[in-house]
């Protein structure tokens, strides 16, 4: 497989690729590479923190939990922050790369959050478990997650007092897309999801007495449907396969949909709703590697951050600062804006986030310093300048960056070829000329220069 | 012909004849500083207890439902025979007496949600409680009517959804100098200097370059404009005071910003409410009073409207921990010089006709307030921004 194509593939289904890894793969065929990616992600490694204290608070009676509700919330807030940090770490060093990227994708599809950590951790791992599985099983599992029954009020959805929140979002955001159902479909399907609830430990409970056993008419069919039946009926509609394929296409291929490609994907996905299959199909297709699909996407804040960490491992001495950066960049994991999720694409970028993105690599890796030493001049003054920067701006983020790792990983890469590894698209003319006028003092300084370009925001 | 008309006419003339550009620039500045209306939004996060803020002290139910949490009659600052303000809102009473305060009672929306997160989302996106939007109402104002990103500024380190549009986002900054310093590394300028337009029309990468140039110029504009005035007014020494101080500095410097957004948090008083709310309301009222005074001294209060809201009110009945749980409708404060209806805009909510949860039934949809502010104050098409037509109120 062509190096350029491998790099592209790894940016989209991962967070970039290191030169030694790239060299290893460059001798392999597309089939071997794609199959390995899928095989390597067969296993599921859940991401779990120690929750024994919380479990204990949730193991007794409702009264006991109610008494301790404040404690549960406080501990949950703390644990959620820890899971955020652990998740970023997981994305940086994953055993199952493709599964992890898919988990990140689904987290912005089945959007949910909860103030009980036990439920949100369980939800989080359900995303991981089904990330490459069958979409039907996935939707059914999501509909029964404690966090989701709370988030979209299925818990309050009772026979004589239906709550339509989940039924509406199930169709609008999770399966069909807006405009592909009627208000009546929502009303009728909400009745099918009555009685959904969970116990204190977060396991699904079906409250039969709250369930509406009457006949529901949904998408032209009538019967005493339950929630699973409704999901089955929805999935019979080809629009559901199309809706998911469009989302996958926009996320992994291009913001702008190519109708023919999405049509082909829909045919494949509609046949069995197998997520691994559709991702394999996409990775195999020749259009995935079309010139216009390469280096044209704006990285999400997490792709940007994890991408940096993959080139230069950087450790945040204060976990709070890692969360703070996510906030500044506009994407805090486990804290989505609402059930519609992050808009993505160009919406990641505004006046604040663009400045933060351009400045961040130098801030966390190089004491805010970007080398501007002119070509042909001595770099002796640079060290003094760097010391000055360290003193004045280096205090902002308490980080340790492992430049030894970088120097080792890039030791066989010529400094003039560094851009081909750091950037996913070519540099615009003006920036390129400016870079040419500067001295390439070291690979480290040049790497920071490249990461400080708008081009580095592309993948 | 008055001065304003004259200037308008002469700016028309300047486009017909070749008037030196510095004269044109002067005219634009002048016409802007004449009647430039600004909106300041203050968000009280956590759900302020409206019933202990604007208090129906003649209503026995109030004391009955809150045996240990009600504010004693003697401590209440009376507005009339029935209604009074919390002890620490004395500065608001002065605004009330001056006719600069309008209190809109019982504001909410149909099918209220009691989750902070979701209810705030509804207030910020101005949507129905069963719909989800990815843009905020002020963001959509910016999309349609904002000329620059800095047309709306949030005094915070990151943006609220309220300030994010479909295509344009506002600026978030607590410190214009830091924002400017981050943006002004000469490295960035050299990257885009001499960049031609052809490049900027390129797909996503061109968009990044455009955003970068706009951000740099906004940061520079905000920093350089704001430093033309040196704030000397003493503000309360807390985070909210600092926000207002910088907002006043922005306004008094004549910055071309139409919307400012600030917030004060900590109102989620489930436990031991009395002291927490006391402290927060003091921060709020003292800050606002100083802010209004600052604007008055700089002759900018007349062009400024301040709207204060919270995502919900709290339950009528106190809970077992000397606090209150999440409720529904709440009061909204409108502060400005040109209020049509000063004082209490409408009656207090009924404390006997409650919903199934024991919460107030709202009377005024918050979006009618937004619609009024957009239409009558910012003078734009409110329907375009709220995606629907709402009744106009007559407080301004």
Automatic annotation (TrEMBL), chain A:
It comes from the Bacteria. This is DUF1800 domain-containing protein. It comes from Flavivirga algicola.
Automatic annotation (TrEMBL), chain B:
Keywords: Signal. InterPro entries: DUF1501 (IPR010869). It comes from the Bacteria. Coiled coil: none annotated. Residues 1-25 form the signal peptide. Pfam families: DUF1501. This is DUF1501 domain-containing protein. It comes from Flavivirga algicola.
